[in-house]
């Protein structure tokens, strides 16, 4: 399977709640601080002009679906890049 990594717009980020939460349920990430609700609330409170920040969120897409965010499996991708990616650099943004 081939994956595509691309930068997401703020509008796309705010449309990912269902996919984000579904992926989070399947991961071992902190369910509070990595939840879409927490991330979206933080961005609405502190992002943009408030602290002069730009949203930099990369999305990983499998054919036809949102598959995650780079680094969501960081320990694994350091040694074994996901199938379809040629290197861990592509998966982990390094």
Could you please describe the fold and organization of this structure?
The structure is a single chain. By secondary structure, the protein is of the alpha+beta class. 38% of the residues lie in helices and 16% in strands. It has helices at residues 10-14, 17-25, 36-46, 74-79, 88-92, and strands at 4-8, 57-62, 65-68. The chain has a three-stranded antiparallel sheet with strand order 1-2-3. It has one domain. It is built from five helices and three strands.
Write the layout of secondary structure elements.
Blueprint: E1 4-8, H1 10-14, H2 17-25, H3 36-46, E2 57-62, E3 65-68, H4 74-79, H5 88-92
Helix content: 25-40%
* SSE order: EHHHEEHH
Distance between the termini: 21 Å
Categorize the overall geometry.
Answer: globular
| Low-confidence blocks of residues | 72-82, 87-94
Annotation, overall tally of beta strands:
3
What's the story with the biggest beta sheet? 3 strands, antiparallel
* Cα-atom radius of gyration: 14 Å
The number of helical segments is: 5
**What's the arrangement of strands in the largest beta sheet?**
1-2-3
Let me know the average pLDDT.
Answer: 75
Could you tell me the strand content as a percent range? 15-25%
Structural class: alpha+beta
Query: How many discrete domains?
Result: 1
